[in-house]
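Q: Is it fine to ask for two folds in a single conversation?
A: Yes, each is treated on its own. Send the first.
Q: Here.
A: Result:
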Amino acid sequence: MNKIRGLLFILLMGFLVSGCSNSSSSNGGGEDPHQEITYAATSDVVGLSPIDTNDSISAAMIEQVYETLFTRDPETMEIKPLLAESYENPDENTWEIKLKEDITFHDGTPFNAEAVKYTFEEFVNEERAAPRASLLEPIESIEATDEYTVEIKTNEPYGALLAALSHTNASIVSPEADKNQDINQEPVGTGPFKFDSWSQGKEVVLTKNEEYWRDPAQLEKITMKVVPEYSTAVSMLETGEVQFIDAIPTQHLSRVEAIDGIEVLEKAGTPVYSVGFNFDKAPYNELEFRQAVSHAIDREAYVGQLKGLGIKNESIIGPEVFGYDQSAEEAGYSYDPEAAKQIIEENGYGNEEITLLTANREAYTRMAEVVQSQLSEVGLNVSIESMEWGTFLDTTPKGDFDMTFTSWSNSTADGSELLYPNLHSDNIDSSNWVRYNNSEFDDLVDSSRSQVEQEAREKDLMEANRIAVEDAAWIPMHHGVVTAAFDESVKGIQIDPTGQWSLYNVHRE
């Protein structure tokens, strides 16, 4: 009798467990009510304040927590309002921006014109020393003309303002939070995700903003894991410990593509990687020398080594950047080693010792090795000097080099914000590492910045870009391809040509 009762008990418990299991799996149509995603980054965030940071890892998390007045469509790259409702230009130096209403920050305080005024005034405050303050450098004044209207006046017409206001670093912060706490440690924005925790060197955790002004996000939680070795991040993607990685290095691409259940996204991007010359030194300031170098480098073969993660184009402004014109590609100096040898022989360039200064980062090292080999083949005496990244960044603005390598991600996707910081004479001794100085080029770049009519701006940029290409101010090695890899359960990820992404529209199936 006891055996029968025991058997009945086991059968009953099995039925109950089975019943509970079926009930759970059918709840909500089979959807997981607690969707989470883990992202692996190769370094920790520097901070979580858009005002006080300027690095891509921090920007990735800031993008989820904060929002900007304007944003770029990830497919068309068209600038459109986000926190802004609309804008108009009563005159060339005035921007009147209407804001969306009934939006609150994560701390419950209102998003309004005073919050925008506060954020931008802090952004340009010299004492605050925001790393990307130059984005709003032309602004003369910011006024809240009513609760939801901001009036921005510039010193002169500034055509790239909307692009600047779509930059992650121009995100709007909660004034109350910034006054009362360190928003670099505890950020407070209006975005679809809220800050939960930051274990420095380990992870950043964000959770869904249930009070978001649009439909709430579908993901409940985002965790950014700090994984210093990219090979380890790939292993974690393979085992399911993380579901999302980006910026895939060339040497890891084939391994990532071979993982079952992983989707890889590749997209032509805005970054450009180039060879640069010191225009303060001979023979690097001689056009013939720069032409010889350009003719000596087989960029087609170099880009082939990148396994699809680079695009060859002679133009400095790339195809995904405002101001690009296809004809600029024809203005460069294509691979022709015999022409290089002839120029070198005619000008007696084979005797000097040339040092290629490079940072000890993989992309730079690869470029340096290719350039050294190919310049040696045409009769130039070339060596490589490698420096730690921080030392490299300190050395190049001082002009302590012969030739070097540059890269620019161009987060605004606007040609003015590529040509002005990198090649305009205003920025010699700072961001114009190569010390390029051409008054005709400067005037065109100035004009592209000091107009609000976009067609006129585009024309100026096309002409300025062609001058720089013909001058071989930079020799583009390749234009970047932005990448991401994610578990097939992750749906809705979009990455724009600047490499930025948002998880707002992402869910898991």
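Q: Second one now.
A: Result:
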Amino acid sequence: MRILLTNDDGIHATGLGVLQAIAAEFSTDIWIVAPEFEQSGKSRAVTLTDPVRVRDAGGNQWGVSGTPTDCVLIALRKLMVDSPPDLILSGVNNGQNLAGDTSMSGTVAAALMGTANGIPSIALSQSKNFRAAGSLDWETAKHCGIQTVRRLLEIGWPTPVTPNVNFPDCTPEEVAGVQMTRQGQRDQLTIDTHTRSDLRGKDYVWIAYNGKMSRPPEGTDLHAIYNNYVSVTPLHVDLTHGPCLRMLEEKWPS
């Protein structure tokens, strides 16, 4: 099995090393095409107005000056065009990709691009800041990641679907299990702006998450992570809201 690894935290990120350890359980034919620098929150952005540079880092590894989606495109259209991957793993992200955050995630976007090209792709993220600010146990992602990826490969999933896997913010011994979940919805915004002034007295803005907890219902990715479960959510690129579509069809004048 040939496996392509990518992420949005950059080619030097700790989580990418964890992902390598996960992939090594399934293959020795591992390729890495990842952003040269962190590209968090880039969603499905594609670089169209600037050249994208590719640096050969040796050993089937390349650093790309663009977004996570750029990385997958370049891997499939240039670097691996004669030897495409059988599986794409994106992550392991430094932080959760849950609820509405999935639409902003570069980690998820890279996996979606792989799915769009007909290649089974999985997004993996390690939650943090639930136990304590800055807490992160990469052993949980490594241990549970191997088990979760193995089970997903055994079961399989439909071609248009991208499994979004999140690991809970706890030690491996504290993991309660694995839950199949739907994408949740937070009952309060967790992203905010912070205005500060530079040394010349001019304002600038930091955009950041404030880490607020919510009260999600059972069956959601949020509820699973809050209760120390690994969350596996099957995502689909079709964003159509079925009930609203049917309502508009019924009420729109013919």
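Q: Anything structural to flag on that second result?
A: Two points. The two ends are 53 Å apart (CA to CA). The longest strand covers residues 87-94.
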